[in-house]
Amino acid sequence: MSTIRAVLFDLDGTLLDSAPDLVGSLNWVRRSENLPPLAVSEVSRFASKGAVGLLKVGMPPADAARLEVWRRRFLDHYSQNSYRESVLYEGIPEVLAFLGEMGIPWGIVTNKTEALTLPIVEAANLAATIGCVVCGDTLSESKPHPAPVSLACGMVDVAPGETLFVGDDVRDIQAGRAAGTQTAAAYYGYGAHEMDDDFVADSFRIHHPAELVELVKKSNGYGGPERDE
Prior knowledge:
The protein is an alpha/beta fold. It has helices spanning 19-32, 40-43, 50-58, 64-80, 92-102, 114-123, 147-156, 170-179, 210-219; strands at 6-9, 16-17, 87-88, 106-109, 132-134, 163-167, 182-186, 204-206. The protein has 9 helices and 8 strands.
């Protein structure tokens, strides 16, 4: 295990349990088409897939033009309702406080646009301690491309090999690997059903955010969960 000197997080499904508000916006679109609402539990596992991903599973089949109408409707509603029922996952505030005490910078690498991400960062009271925010439109490429993760490593001034990227989606692990970071699969998030044993063979498995504290401690010589070998 290499020393962890910085930690980067995906946002939805990793730092933030955002499914209630995302599904709320999906149901707003469904109402516009006279469709009944869906329960959060029915579609929450797709919450890391963005507006289009949610619409494809939560709306009837549609052509590209209709899907674009729905996407715009979804985003208009979500931009005004992105932090009503969303909450940081249990244990995340303690993880971030621990990183601050250790002097370990942390940041967010998300495929959400900046216009949607920054208000959430402010509403969740993360702005004062966050080291960097790289969004889906910060660069021309987004995850699973490694460029956003590489940029974040540069922004916190820590080499990729000494950076841990934590995410709940296959694209997070792919991006982190390609950028040369250590990776951790957040099994408490939305995308665990897509990450089989072979896929996470060289990643840490995190079933509760508190395990990240032990992992960082161990990497810095204190004792945590083993990476699958």
